Amino acid sequence: LSLEVQYFLQCVACLGSSFTLETMLSIWKHQTMFGTRSAASKRSTDELLDTMVKEEYLETPEIGNYRWAHDNVQQAASSLIDEESPESFRSYIGELWIREIDEDNLETCVFDIANLLNTITADVANIEYAKINLKAAEKAKNIAAFDSCSKYVSKGIDMLPENKWDSEPGLAVKLHSLAAEAEGFLGHHSRMDSYCNEVLSQSLIPTLEKKDVYLAKLHRMANAELQYVDAIKLCLVILKDLGCTFPGGGVVGLMKALISMRKTVKMVKRTPTEVLASLPVVTDPFKLAKMTLFSRLGEWAYLAGEKFLYLYLLSTAKMVQMTLLHGLFEWSASSLSALGALSLFVNGDVGTAQYIGECALQMQERCESEAGKARTLEVLYAFVFLHVKPLQNFSKPLLEGYQSGMRTGDKSNAMWCLQFNVGVIHMTGKPLNVVEEQCRASITQVVELKEEECASGLRMYWQLYLNLMGSSNNTVELSGKAMYEKEVVFTPFSRSHFIIAKTFASSLFGRYELGAHLVLEKGDQQFLMMKGGIMYAPLFWFHRCLCMFAMARSNKSKERKYMAQAKRIHTELT
After folding, report:
1. Can you give the pLDDT at residue 33?
2. DSSP string spanning 386-453?
3. Which residues contact 318 (CB under 8 A, 6 or more apart)?
4. How far apart are the first and last CA of the chain?
5. N or C: fewer beta carbons within 10 Å in the chain?
6. Do 116 and 94 form a contact (C-beta atoms < 8 A)?
């Protein structure tokens, strides 16, 4: 190859796996500035590209667009770059690319540009380079490439000046917030804490701008450490700083929450569907922040148990009211789905729950962002629609919710979609080995992502399936490969799953007395309600009813007591 062609190949090798004629023209016109590496060009860019195509180095899938014929060809071209200073050559190409490209076209090639700029190994403070890395990190996050997101924000932070919190506070907050979110998703909690602490220690940064860092910290407290009470308290403090307060708990707080919830249900039923379908999209950062925090508060208040139920009711009502008053938020559809579930839980009203649920689905379809889609589908198909639609149709939307959650970084609700999909496979009568295999595969991912509440529940069902398959020495005791029941530290939510799995085992293995006598604590009722409880609740009551009938037949002295309980359950089931 001539020197001219070699130099041309070196430049092309820096532009990624594919590029446009316009990009190459903007870079190659500076070829005389490559110093001793360049020779005077004798051919035009078009001619050189035609030569590359004829020699089968490049291909042209469409006019004006080029790509390498094979990855090995690109690697070979890269090897032509001077080994003494490959980083400086690549970074220089990156600088030329930034200088020539316009903002509208930056999005499509931001990864390639950032990669070129990041070849500089020395610590160099450069605000423009840091901004490019922020753009690359945001794009990586949007496609759920959190490893890449972490690398780009880390490089961007390194490129900030030492006085970043004085000279570039806005850019510094964005980079550190995104870094905390990425590390939190990847389960790198020590790194996440480092980024969070640096932002939170900046007294001049307002609470609104610290929102994403707070969310990363809250997510770890609640979902990885199961410290729901601490997460709720911190969330309330943050909301108070944003001007939103909640009443205290107890009977008064619960009464206020019930009144607010019923009022909100009436508001939704009175709102014409055409109005719901034409709500404007909210863009106010202050309102968006409050809506996101309400969503998290409601989720953790639900999982924290009966004591915090009033906060779940209030936060859900506030979210729906904000939607009706101000317009469409990312979490609007999920708040409607939660309201539908609560109308079941509080009023037992299946018709209203279904109507609100269908409104939530339509609203989710309208929403350009799918940030809340995983939670919307999880709540609708695990709490609402099981009373009105066949379970056989539930796997598709639940897996869609899982995929959506993973795409948007909502790993918590993505994992709940996985768990409830295992429940669907179980309750629709799939072979036990298929159910066990799906459960085991789901646990692997849930544990990897450090979603401890979800993992705890899945382990209980996995051990149940192992017991039923004869792969464990135990029958009704949930101990073996998946878990040891005596070592479990229960949360209110995980205890309800334990009661469910234990009842299934007792019924199926003929230990009816154990199944009939499993103590239901007051806090269990929230999750085991026939209407408004979790997906497994109806099947749980079916097996508990069987245990009661069996005990009535075998224990004549207490036949009337067991039969009365069994008939009450049977009446509600039917």
Report:
1. 59
2. GGTS-GGGSHHHHHHHHHHHHHHT-HHHHHHHHHHHHHHHHHTT--HHHHHHHHHHHHHHHHHTT-HH
3. 244, 260, 294
4. 82
5. C
6. yes
Two structure tokens written together for 10: 């070196």
pLDDT at residue 38 in the model: 46
Gyration radius of the chain over CA positions: 29
The two tokens of residue 271 are 């709102």
Tokens 């005791």, residue located: 477
Relative to beta strand 58-62, strand 65-68 is antiparallel
Instruction: Measure the CA–CA gap between 418 and 439, rounded to whole angstroms.
Output: 9
DSSP label of 118 = T
Q: Look at the block and give the residue holding tokens 């540009």.
A: 113
Range 529-532, long-range pairs (CB < 8 A, 24+ positions): 529/344, 529/345, 530/572, 530/573, 531/344, 531/345, 531/348, 531/350, 531/387, 532/341, 532/342, 532/344, 532/345, 532/346, 532/348, 532/383
- Quick one: CA dihedral 528, 531, 535, 538, positive or negative? positive
| pTM assigned to the model | 0.85
CB of 317 within 8 A of CB of 257? Answer: yes
Identify the CA nearest to 323 among candidates 264, 253, 401, 381. Answer: 264
Yes or no: say if 407 and 144 are a contact pair by the CB < 8 Å rule: yes
Distance between CA atoms of residues 277 and 323, nearest Å: 12
Picking from 185, 184, 156, the residue whose alpha carbon sits closest to that of residue 172 is 156
Nearest to 535 by CA among 391, 375, 334, 347: 391
- Alpha-carbon gap, residue 498 to 38, rounded angstroms: 72
Residue 342 token pair: 């609560």
Distance CA 429, CA 489 (A): 31
Tens of pLDDT, residue by residue over 501-529, are 999 999 999 999 999 888 787 777 889 99
Report the alpha-carbon distance of residue 415 to residue 406 in Å, rounded. 9
Pick from 29-33, 309-313, 381-385: least confident? 29-33
Q: 169-203: buried (b, 16+ CB within 10 Å) or exposed (e) per residue?
A: eebbbbbbbbbbbbbbbbbbbebbbebbebbbebe
Residue 96 contacts residue 27 (beta carbons within 8 Å): yes
Cα separation, 520 vs 501, in Å, equals: 13
